[in-house]
Amino acid sequence: MKKVGIVLALCLAFAQLSAKEIININRDWRFFGSSEGSSDRARNVNLPHTWNNDALSGRDDYFRGAGNYMKDIHVPLEWRNKRVFIRFAGAGTVTDLIVNGRHVGEHRGGFTAFVFELTGYLKHGETNRLWAVVNNAPRLDVLPTAGDNNVYGGIYRDVELIVAEPSHIALSHYASDGIYVHQKSVTREKAELETTVCIDGLAGRTLNVDMAVLTAEGDTAAVQSTKFKVPEKGTGSVSLPATLLRPRLWNGTLDPYMYRVAVRLTDDGLPCDEASVPLGLRFFTVDPKEGFLLNGEPYRLRGVVYYEDRASAGIALSPYQIREDLDMIAEMGANAVRAAAYPHNPEFYAECDRRGLVVWTDLPLVGPAFMTDKGYTGTEELKRNGRQQLREMLFQRFNNPSVVMWGLFSEQTPRGDDPTDYIEELNEETLQEDPSRMTVAASNQDGRINFVTDLIVWDHTFGWKEGQPSDIKVWIEQLKANWGSLCSGISYGAGASIHHQDDSLSRPDYLGNWHPERWQTFLHEQYYLYVNGSPFFWGWFVANMFDYGAAKRDWGEGTGIDDRGLVTFDRKYRKDAFYFYKANWNKETPMVHIVEKRWADRAKPVQTIRVYSNAEQVELLLNGTSLGAKTGSDGTFVWENVEMRRGDNALEARSAQATDRAAVYIK
Questions:
Q1: 152 and 314 in contact (C-beta within 8 Å)?
Q2: Domain assignment of residue 661, yes or no
Q3: Based on the structure, what is the number of domains in the chain?
Q4: Are strands 606-613 and 561-562 parallel, antiparallel or unpaired?
């Protein structure tokens, strides 16, 4: 009876209003560039915002420098006994904050959140001016120092004012939630947890710390309480254990079930703060022979590489745009995503949690895309910044169940300053801070660098930059023979423009201005044949899900886009290769897709017609006449020697549950 009383009291406490106020201040900022010289010429903008429309239009000399954001806020007298913070979810890439003419602080790094305390800088009962100077100029002491994706400038994620009590769950611990739920041991029978709460408060005060694990239905699964005396320095942490019997596991896309862990602080009976974080209970491992196992069962990762970038918005994505992107990833049937090149918007991870997508998230330690680039300089300043950005990524994403691996580098080269020793340091620190997850990297060369992280993903260009797609078969055999002990995954891709259609099927010059869609489709079909047939890989990550901005690139359509995506930069068109994966990976939604529909004008009357479908049997009709039904292989159905008439022709492909049509003109 006593235990029931405690549970009821805690539930009632957690249902009360928080003592902390969070105010979104995205609206009505004034922005002016450094070239404009004065706020008199500022224009009103709402966040998220980037100034780099020039990069989105493909200018290879897009502006990289300082931009200024100003906002006036009224600070009420009621805040006099509070502590006030400002939290930027992301701004690129170096931000200095000035409040009422006084410099508050600087943050270096464009893709993780950061917090400044404003308490001593505010004038209560008056209007206060916030001035954020954001700079995306290239520099060698702030990651990333290389790569070909656009480095946008701006405040491109949310900004919040946080009004807290003098004692609160720490906001200053790497701008995280301040709550870390360690999954010490998880099985289907029992989950052993330890929740660490970081506290920032008045020295000498003794606080009550209450914790509850709540189910998705709102029931209480576990409770725990303790006391914490704030040390003289004002900050510290406390840990609370909890055990759940027969827990419901977060089981990927099959059942992405989540609990929540709620924490409440009180001081002499008065509420100080409360917060909650997601909890998805799962266990996983990777074995060179068995592959990726989720909750003890084989769970091969079918992934895509996703850059947080799209036409008209750049990196300044809204939540609905992130959901739209993930809807397309889910439609294709992928169950894993690489958040490429840098940590992404917090909303991305929350959506992946809810959808059950397995996430690999990257530190922006990116290698050179061009021979003149330098992916790593071995200075203490750069190393310090890398460690800072690593900790921010680790602690800010610690509670997201979707995140199962930390990406430490992308395509680094030992040429010049060798980053291998530094990567070993980062790997050791990562596993020390979070032994529950694995480390991973994307590599495109040989050497000791490939043996540092727990997992390695080989980024290949056979059939795109050199050779033929079938060369991957020889490489796989060599990998098995020489480096069979490595836990290997694979990534690959080829560029394609939906406007480039012709009769030929040969490898184009990737540096040229003709990237036919047919070649991209062919390459993906060939790779799939060898990769899917090899359980040696624990998973693969198709590069890329979407085209992304790369203003330095003048090949393809010449518009500053990396066109290796399965979907166009504006998200309007799914390329044929998208439907190839959908036919193989998405068995739930009936689909039929006639390949090469955009190749509408053809010279030869005798054609080969290809259809993608997840059905067992597909029938093809030409100008209303059936050409028979076929069974397919790897989602592909082929009709050879189809004789068409000169002029217009109508194709129709149909299964028992889906239909697609196409028009072909024979000259």
A1: yes
A2: yes
A3: 2
A4: unpaired
Give 9's pLDDT tier (boundaries 50, 70, 90).
very low
| pLDDT given for residue 38 in this prediction | 73
Exposed e or buried b for every residue in 10-38, given b needs 16+ CB within 10 A? Answer: bbebbeeebbbeeeeebeebbbbbeeeee
Q: Which of 169, 197, 223 is the last residue of a domain?
A: 169
Q: Which residue has the tokens 């990116």?
A: 366
CA distance to 410, 458, 586, per residue, from 461 (Å): 15, 10, 26
The model's pLDDT over 451-494, given as tens digits with 9 standing for 90+, comes to: 999 999 999 999 999 999 999 999 999 998 988 889 999 999 99
Identify the DSSP state of 275.
E
Is the per-residue pLDDT at 635 higher than 90? yes
Question: Average pLDDT in the 188-214 region?
Answer: 97
Tens-place pLDDT, residues 402-419: 999 999 999 998 777 899
Q: What's the token pair of residue 418?
A: 């060798």
Query: Which residue, among 94, 106, 93, has the nearest Cα to 151 in the 3D structure?
Result: 93
Strand partners, 659: 654
Integer Cα distance of 561 and 567 in angstroms: 12
For residues 361-365, average pLDDT: 97
What is d(CA 84, CA 82) in angstroms, rounded to the nearest whole number?
6
**Number of Cβ within a 10 Å radius of residue 552:** 18
CATH code for the domain in which residue 46 is found: 2.60.120.260
Are 204 and 187 contacting, i.e. CB atoms less than 8 angstroms apart? no
Residue 447: what pLDDT? 87
Q: How confident is the model at residue 17 (pLDDT cuts 50, 70, 90)?
A: very low
The domain that holds 615 is classified in CATH as: 2.60.40.10
* DSSP class per residue in 187-247: -SSEEEEEEEEEEE--TT-EEEEEEEEE-TTS-EEEEEEEEEEPPTTSEEEEEEEEEEESP
- Confidence at 371, pLDDT banded by 50, 70, 90: low
Tokens for 648, please give them: 């217009």
Catalytic residue among 347, 411, 557, 619: 411
Helix axes 517-532, 471-483, angle to 10 degrees: 30
- Verify whether residue 411 is a known catalytic residue: yes
Whether residue 48 is preceded by a cis peptide bond, meaning omega within 30 degrees of 0, is yes
Report yes or no on 146 lying in a domain: yes
pLDDT at residue 372, rounded to an integer: 63
Mean pLDDT, residues 499-508: 93
Domain end (from 149, 169, 189): 169
Question: Does 196 map to a domain?
Answer: no
Q: Per the structure block, which two tokens stand in for 412?
A: 């680094």
| Contact call for residues 322 and 347 (beta carbons, < 8 A) | yes
SS (H, E, C) 602-644: ECCCEEEEEEEECCCEEEEEECCEEEEEEECECCEEEEEEEEC
Pairing label, strands 358-362, 561-562: unpaired
* Mean pLDDT, residues 364-368: 91
* Residue 390 within any structural domain of the chain: no
41: confidence class by pLDDT, cuts 50, 70, 90 = confident
* pLDDT bucket at 18, cuts 50 / 70 / 90: low
Q: What is the pLDDT of residues 240-263, one digit of tens each?
A: 999 999 999 999 999 999 999 999
At which residue do the structure tokens 């044929």 appear?
576
Nearest partner of 330 among 355, 361, 298, 364, judged by Cα:
355
Q: Range of 141's domain?
A: 21-169
